[in-house]
Task: structure prediction
Amino acid sequence: MDALVKQWMETETARADLQSRWAAEKQQISSLIKLYQAEKKALTDKVTSASVSASEVDQTRIALAEQQDGYEANAAQAERILAHAKTAMTKLWPWLPVPLQRQLEEANASLLDTSASLANRMQSLLSMLDEMQRFNAILTLNKEILTLENGKQVAVEQLYLGLSQAWFISSDGKTAGLGSASAQGWQWQVVPEYADAIAEALAVFKRTRQASFVDLPVIASKVAENDDVQ
Result:
């Protein structure tokens, strides 16, 4: 199993677990904040009206301190989750298709923004994982200016199959090939002998040709010894 597929499986498992834990923790944190604010207001009102004893103030202060400790513990756990996620996402980023990177730019910036609220950063992470899951489940058509191995730039249409495989063809049909994910970014290889098949696959996808089975070449994503996407 190639490294990207393995990483994706681990990401999917983490996403489901993260959503479940964050939903529970977010509700708990929200409830604690509301309770803290309500009790703080009640205590302030009592002190203002001078109708509360010193012992009652101490008891309320202790209770609030314990609740605050619980809130801070949950927040610390969420921060640890985010720190791990940021490291993993940074390693995974080069492997993602360029059109998906564009879709995730805003959410990724929010995830990396330490001045953003905890809730916003966690929501950004979850939205990124959801978008990655969606992209991996569909075929995606993209137009791009592609730089080939010889340095030549060509305007092409690309057809992505999930996160790890894609094909391309130029508008004149003379330049065609396939791409695969790697830790250095997507690698594109010209395979002119498959131009007709790639053109047919694009036509079927765009529904300008009757649906049929098309044989297309694939490249397994390979990781060099110094690559690390774990």
Helices lie at 3-49, 54-92, 98-112, 118-136, 195-205.
